Amino acid sequence: MRTLMTGPVWVSYGQIYVESSESPPVLEECFRGQRNGLCGAASAGKLFLLTGLHTGWVGFAVELHEEPPPIDDQWEEIVEASYRPATEDTALVGWAGEGCWPLDLQLTDYRVRYCGWGMDAVEAPDRPMDDEAPVDRYLLQFWPAPPGPDQVVKQTSSKATELHDIPLQLPPPAAQDPAGVQPTSRPRLPPQNWL
Predict the structure, then answer these.
(1) Of 145, 167, 75, nearest to 114 (Cα)?
(2) Most buried of the four, 23, 31, 93, 125, by CB within 10 Å?
(3) What is the mean pLDDT of the segment spanning 19-38?
């Protein structure tokens, strides 16, 4: 196992991303057709990661494994999805470029496990100030694996339950025509305030 990054990261709007393409992740494109609402992996080369904290510092680590790591039941939230970088330049990136941490990932298919802890604690009125340690923390684990459907492995917090509703509220993925061309129109998001 190799640790690709570890430390506090700044999130805004409860979002942070893994990017390997020039266009930024879009929530509805990344979560459409999925079961989980924490790790959007439906858009090629992108992961759209949601956190409990709206704005501030969260603990974060990214690991690369050679095979599936054991599931650590100490995490309160665990989801899995498939991911393949679109380019050799993959990075963990904050909202609007607020921080960038290069990730040494190959151009191959990965399974990714996104784990969270303390997602509800940040809703408390006594959440930490900027100079205090983060309350919520996250772990992102990659290992080589063929593509497969995403899944919710463990769900504990009310915040995660709320976020898992995101994919259910999106229209299904657009069907390709026989020539393999996707329609260009984008559906509007439901009038919800998810984040």
Answers:
(1) 75
(2) 31
(3) 92
